[in-house]
Amino acid sequence: MKRLLIILILIITCPGTVLGISDVKKVYLTEAIDAALKNNLDLQAAQLEVNIAQNKIKTANRLQNPSVGAFYFLGAAGRGEPKQIGISEDIEIAKRGARKNLAKSNLELVEKNVAYTKFDLKMDVREAYINLVAAKSVLDTLEQQKSLQEELLEIAENRVKQKEVPEIDVIQAEIALNQLITQVNTARVNVNTALADFNKIINDPNKVVYDSKDKLFSEENNFAEMLTPPPTYKFPPFNTIIERALENRYDIKIAKQEIDLAEKNLTVVARQRIPDISITGGYAYQLGRYSDSGNFNNGAYAGASLVNIPLFYNYSPEIQNAAYKVRQAELKYTSAKNKAIKDVSAAYEKFLTAVENLNYYEDKILKSSEKMIDISMDSYEHGKSDITALIVMKQAYKSIIVGYTYALSEYYNSWTNFLRETNDEDFELNEDV
Q1: How many CB atoms lie within 10 A of CB 416?
Q2: Which region holds residue 284: left if phi is over 0, alpha if psi is between -120 and 50, else beta?
Q3: 376 and 350: one domain?
Q4: I want to staple 421 with a disulfide (CB 3.0 to 4.6 A). Which of 184, 246, 315, 347 is the partner?
Q5: Full residue range of the structural domain in which residue 300 is found
């Protein structure tokens, strides 16, 4: 995080220096996702949980370690009594298998959580990449408008020299240009901020600064590069989508696995009531001077006993709490499904609205606005309108272009959000023929 902040400050203050110091790597969206999956530190930390869970299976399946002991009578009490040395072992009854099943269920839960983390990271990279390209697109639009405004200022100055218009036209053009310069400066900082956010998501510990190869949304094949279907594609009905989403969503799978985990934990806790067996055995001997026969006697001994008999405490509170955990997991599972339906529905409606807005921009607003600004520029240059009307038109045109950029950004982000809610990055739409 600290390194990214330093990079951001350097980019803002001296971009040329940063390019000389840092290794800037231009990537497309698919390459950015691959870089994040390979290098993201948070994902690497999450994946270690799988190794931990695997070791917990071995721990759960362990046998109790034996105990070695010796038994001697000392002094006068020891005369004539045999000496003993042996081993004892506690054997658990119906517990190891239950613990192992619980650990296996926990491993499945961890694997599902890691898969969810990986999927979430992909969606985060998509959003950060789209936001970076959107910021670049806005900056490019404002820089183009700045160039047009500089051209307008030049036209106004020429017309003032020829005494065709009053000097106030130049003042108005300069004010409009200065306003655009401040907007360009802000847009440039927004690009640098989006760049830092993009690298924070990738979270690469190596000295690499990732940047998008895509600069503008309007480039050809941009929909394919952004892993997004064109807005002309046909969207399936909601009922079809929700059925698929309920099957794919990781939070539902995780909630279901938590039920299994809670049930297996209940089994482990309940089996604490079963007594264990303690087995002992070993070698015993008696010296000849203490035996009736005068001979050295030796042999073996063995014994068994029940331990941990639930006589004074029968684990009822633990069992009751484990049962509550099962019920709690079942409620969370139902809740996850209910929330999923609402989340997918909201994402579905949001994407359809984004499609409608984008098509409206492309089919009606852009064409008319481009024609409007061309006519306005020509009218002012030939003295058919004043500069105030032209500046108003240019500001309106700028707002339309920026609005179109945001509509594109919203379209891409809405698609990413739809994939996030359906948990299906391979969701495909059919071309609307």
Answers
A1: 24
A2: beta
A3: yes
A4: 347
A5: 65-91+276-309
